[in-house]
Amino acid sequence: ALRGKSPDDxxxxxxxxxxxxxxxxxxxxSIPFHAKILxxxxxxxxxxxxxxxxxxxxxxxxxxALKSRxxxxxxxxxxxxxxxxxxxxxxxxxxKAHDFPLPKRLVDQQIGTRLENNLRSLxxxxxxxxxxxxxxxxxxxxxxxxxxxxxxxxxxxxxIADVENIQAD
Length: 169
Description:
The chain is mostly helical. The chain has helices at residues 50-56, 63-97, 104-124, 136-163, and strands at 10-16, 30-36.
């Protein structure tokens, strides 16, 4: 609705939210808007040259050196992701191969920790978690399978560490 408009133009338009929109107050509703264009800003990107590289970090004399460092960082990140994925798959296989009853208290604590982490994340994103109308019991139960996996993985890895005499340094 705003595309092609100029400063001081006024525009009336309507936004229709889908039925499954995250905010129940807006889901399935059409809301009219009125907007006045105050101004148009355009971002100017810098030239990708040696001066740009020096502005990013004084240690880079040339743009090619900066590019090389970024490429190395991306490759390291990919290697680390691949290594972490392999470790996660190994732990998943260990968990699947060992079936044993889990202490309910440990699983419940893990669910609580997962919920607290989710709430902290939402709060850091600016969400007022106290005003959320959420069935925490239902969310906690949806976290149960992952919590059970995590508890079982922790117990298995702890046992392996004991048997192999592995200690964190």
